[in-house]
Amino acid sequence: MAVRIVRQPKQIVVLGAPTSAAAMSAGHEKAPQALRQAGLIEKLQAIGYSVTDMGDDPVETYQPDQESPRARNLVRVVASLEALKPRVESAVKTGGLALILSGDCSSALATVAGVRRYYRGASIVYMDSDADLNVPATSPSGCVDGMVVAHLTGRGAAEMVRFWSEPPLVRDPDVALFGVSRLDAPEKGVLSQTAIRCFRAVDVRKMGTSAAAEMAIERIHGGKNELVLHLDVDVISSEDFAATDLPGSRDGLRLDEVREALTVMAKQPRLVALEIAAYNPERDSDGRGAKLIVELIAAALAARLATQNEEQKEAQKEQQAAAPAVANGGNVSEPTANAEAPSAQANAVSASAEAPDSTTESPADNESPEHLTSASGE
Length: 378
What we know:
By secondary structure, the chain is α/β, with parallel strands linked by helices. It has one domain: Ureohydrolase domain (Arginase, Chain A, 3-Layer(aba) Sandwich). The protein is 36% helix and 14% strand. Strands 2-1-3-8-7-4-5-6 form an 8-stranded parallel beta sheet, sandwiched between helices. It has a two-stranded antiparallel sheet with strand order 9-10.
């Protein structure tokens, strides 16, 4: 049976992916809990969101893997993806914004696959200091985290590429790398031969952050496809943030620039999932890094909610202005109760993460028929 998803603008569904399997050291798996303890849920609620916390997947930790030096810990990485994907599907089905707190970047595959359970087209803005376009044959470290975009676009380790039954998960023209400040030679070669968009930190700064963010979204068909936003915190310059295994380069985006870009992207009506990755609590002894991330997320999502509220008010005004004036005893009839329906609908939050089909009867205004797929198959 086809499922029509009703967007719930004031609902956020939080999912934890406590994994460091794709990284090169342990610690990242502690990120979801650390961000919760830093007040993330309470902050989002204070802004005005209804937040459902779906808890964490089983923990998958980094382990030395001398048997597979070209692509380390693939078994653990795939296990983490298989655990996360169905939970992203459930979050997307509620109509709320899926907020994934991940230890490493590999979770992007499960997030996009979860989105594509219900939507045919998906685009991704990948905010990271690195392009993550290496494959096992070119990776100097065998770190699977450095291959995520390659795997998303159908290149690299077979176990990762085949995670989605009909690769690629995302077409090259629907991928924008944003804030890149480190590129390996093989990655430069891939970018020169493909339609993957790359917005280097230096170019973002020259263009202006907001203009660059808007261009990135436009170039990857962000107004047509559902949008996934991936934030690797190492995109922030090491001048401002260091609680990650490989802090961003000094030439990377400064904190204010990252905040500005996130705000532009968070306002996009088709944004369906936001990922936060690569924070390592073991490199954040005083917890300041976690608080910075929470403030960063909160600022962007506060701007998103404000934009949605304003658009809702404008839509109600237009609806009322378009309604014919009906004389009733010399008085103009009162606006119908339906004018307030969007607000009530936006505040409706299911008690469980899996929304029943009866709550998904009507499509959201910004969905098109091409994004309706069967709920019983990929």
